[in-house]
Amino acid sequence: MPHLLFRGVPSEQLKSVSAPLAAELAAICECGTDNFTMACLNTTSVFGSEADDQGFAFIEVGWFERGQQVRNRFAQAVTKYVSQIGLSEIEIVFHAYREDSYYINGETVSE
Known about the structure:
Blueprint: E1 3-7, H1 11-29, E2 37-41, E3 45-47, E4 50-52, E5 57-64, H2 68-84, E6 90-97, E7 103-104, E8 107-108
Parallel strand pairs: 1-2, 5-6
Antiparallel strand pairs: 1-5, 3-4, 7-8
Helix pairs in contact: 1-2
């Protein structure tokens, strides 16, 4: 169920690597590829009076914590595929969900 939110990554370019990325992440997390969601946000970086539609890649990963080793491998895989589409500065942050705070159709998954 990891959710990846991409900023500064054009969706048309992400499409070209999304399937192999999902396959590698599924192997790392030991789950199916259908557990992943990937979404791109259109963003414009602003600094002072300058605006830059390119900026850099900033990827947020929301997931249930799987430990440092899995997190490292996950970040390396994401970096590898995003760099293949020509982005050189790639930053990733993980947000760990708590099972008692995660609901599907109004029902908690922790019970």
